[in-house]
Amino acid sequence: MNLISNICSSLCSSLEGDAKNRETPRAIDESIRLPLLALIKSAAIWMLIATVFGLIASIKLHTPSFLNDCPVLTYGKVEPIFWNTLILGWLFNSGLACAVFLLGRLGGRPLGQGIFLTIAVSLWNTAVVAGVIGIMMGGQLPFKWLEFPPYIAPILFVAFLAIGVWCAMAFRDRANRSTYASQWWILAAIFSFAWIYSAAQIMLVCAPAQGAFQALVNSWYVENVFGLLIAPLTFATIYYLIPKTLGEAVVGYRYSGVAFWTWIFFASFAGVAKMAHGPIPAWVVSLGVIGSFGLLLPTTTLSIQFLSSLLSRFSKIWDTVSARYLLVGCVVFTIVMLFKIFGSLRGSLDVVQFSIFDSGVTQLALFGFAGLVFTGGAYFILPRLLNKQLPSTTLIDLQFWAQVMGLVLISIGLISGGIHQGELMNGSTTDMLVVVNTMRASFFLTSMGLSFLLVGAVAYNVTFFWMILSGRTEEETSTALIEESPELEYTAS
Amino acid sequence: MMSDESQQHNLPGVDEGKASDESIVKTHARIRREPSNGSPVLFFTSLALITVLVFSWFYLRRYMGEKEPQMYLHEREDIALYRDWQDRPRGPIVYDYYAIGEKLYTQMACVGCHQANGEGLAGQFPALAGAKYVTHEDPALPTKVILAGLTGPVTVKGNEFNGVMVAFGAGMTDVQVAGIVTYIRKNWGNETSEVTNDQVAAIRAEIGTRAPYTAAELKSYFE
Fold first, then answer.
1. Which residues have C-beta within 8 Å of that of residue A34, sequence separation ≥ 6?
2. Which fold has domain B97-222?
3. Among the four A305, A382, A455, B96, which has the fewest Cβ within 10 Å?
4. B99 part of contact set with chain A, CB < 8 Å
5. In sequence order, what are the residues at sequence separation of 6 or more whose Cβ sits closer than 8 angstroms to the Cβ of residue B36?
């Protein structure tokens, strides 16, 4: 009984204490509490599921007999389940949680139709569950990151449209007429995902393109899921959390517009570069390489903005949970983009194209960049949403360091392992079995890394459910924990 | 207010908001509006822009590829190799007619009647070895028989035959017909000239599509 009342108080908290100062922020948080909790809860659970499947897939690579009696857990099913739950489950939910929070807070007005958003989100998550079951039953499609059976796609798309319409309405209803970079990135993510998902589904499933063109569309979609959905939501979160947790304007904010448009432009065709040496015209690949290399421009701007903002306040960062995640996320962003940019040149692809390098860079980008930033965002949002403290900073420290350790191990295992693998395979005299045996150590490192990430995922879930289920302390019931924030000073730059 | 705030700062489980949402929007909007006098971000962004432009220019010049059909090749050496291969000197095609005919003789129906030793079957199918129709100095004679067939009574090496040979050659290419004719004219002790595909083409054009020959029609060759 106690537990139930705790959950109820988490869902609709009323404060007797003086909360006049935060009337509007409190009202905003109140209006989106239900969808936000639904999103963060789903994100936490999907994070656990995705990491478990990733770990199983990774273990199978160095110990093929692992779980080989189980027909629903063959490598061919576990691997796509891992990627799909990672992206459509964890990152989508946690990124959207941050986006919804930002839309409300930056808009400066309580948002309506929270129930509508909650239903749309539930529909989305139900579709993802159905898709995972569909893959387990053997109904998967052969396209990377679009493996869900064909009947799942319309449900996902409708759910996404509902979510997108809600976000667009939330943006339209804002009270602050000026816009902030976070809002541009969120809108860009919403509109581009509707575009790339429908385009990819139509060209691959509804009216399939012929021959090599399918692979081209697929690689375009895969790169754009990162470039036009996950990364924009992450940038939005970073842009918001930097001034919020450091109390300083973003360094060089003037150039955010340049970074935004060049990123959208170049990212939209960068994925084609992966088809180098394939049976498609050389100029298509060359354009893809230009798209990839063009990302150097927004990457430079964004990296300098983020890192110099964060490093100028380095001493403050370690006291603030979310800023710590932000810092590591931004460092990983710079590293990942350098790998992506220089890994897509023809000379690099000669070595790494058919190795585990690409999988390593993608995992680093998703777990390390987006995953960490969204986690930081959730830790910023949760206390405000529930008016409770984070229950245990030790647990959060554990999660943080486990995730950082995991990322280091995965990077060493897959990225440097991938380069080594590519070099070995290019030496045509090398026996294939020698290559496979050499890769064992890399796969083992990756499994260790994913185990660390699993520890992090468990810690995150424990923190979240502990927070939801625990009762309020005396202090938490009587007062608003969150003080009104001071004004951000304008400093001429 | 201040004392409250300093107390709040020590809450380990809550990240303090150090800027209000409205001021974040307004201050940053102002930063975008107001003129600026350069910053490291501008410098490095410009540097990156120049790098990207220069790279794109040279990369596209280097790797824009070619038009059909070598549009899939991107390395200059590969394209040059392909061009060299296309422009390679091409002499006349030389066929080994005997080898072609040897293969066809067993693949087609020939061997069934005329036998592997070219002796035919006594009383049913005439021999090819030493037959005057085969070894005639003008190769047009056996070529015509293969192209259009032979029917009715015929005398080969003193034996009377009365059968039908259908127009096997009508369905074969010139090279194939030339191969077969050459083979039977040079095998089993026959030592006569070979025939080329051009000759076969000329003969084929000359006789057109017609009914099988009779021995009487071919009589002119032996006068």
1. A11, A114, A115, A118
2. Cytochrome Bc1 Complex; Chain D, domain 2 (1.10.760)
3. B96
4. no
5. A254, A492, A493, B42
**Interchain CB distance below 8 Å, A244 and B18:** yes
The amino acid sitting at A420 is: H
Question: Does B64 lie at the interface with A, CB-CB under 8 angstroms?
Answer: yes
Higher pLDDT, B146 or A16: B146
- Listed by start position, the domains of chain B span 22-86, 97-222
Q: Which domains are present in chain A?
A: 23-471 (1.20.210.10)
pLDDT digits 0-9 by tens, A75-132: 999 999 999 999 999 999 999 999 999 999 999 888 888 899 999 999 999 999 999 9
CB contact under 8 A, A247 and B28: no
Span A236-285, pLDDT tens digits: 999 999 999 988 899 889 999 999 999 999 999 998 888 888 888 888 89
Residue A15 has pLDDT above 80, yes or no: no
Sheet holding B213-214, edge to edge: B159-165, B150-156, B213-214
Query: Are A84 and A128 within 8 A, CB to CB?
Result: yes
Chain A residues touching B32 at Cβ < 8 A: 253-254, 256-257
Buried residues in A440-453 as b, exposed as e (16+ CB within 10 A)? eebbbbbbbbbbbb
CB atoms within 10 A of CB A19: 18
CB-nearest partner of A249 from B8, B28, B36: B28
With beta carbons under 8 A apart, name residues in chain B contacting A256.
32
Write the single-letter amino acid at A110: P
User: What is the Cα–Cα distance from A166 to A468, expressed in whole angstroms?
Assistant: 26
Distance, CA of A316 to CA of A307 (rounded, Å): 14
> What integer is the mean pLDDT of B144-154?
82
How many interchain CB pairs under 8 A, A with B?
188
Cα gap A58→A417, rounded to integer Å: 14
**Residue linked to tokens 């021995």:** B215
pLDDT in tens, B21-53: 888 888 888 888 888 777 888 899 999 999 999
Provide the shortest C-alpha distance from residue B2 to chain A (in Å). 11
Confidence of residue B73 (pLDDT cuts 50, 70, 90): confident
* Cβ <8 Å between A322 and B15: yes
pLDDT for A435 equals 86
Q: Which residue, A64, A36, A109, A56, is CA-closest to A374?
A: A36
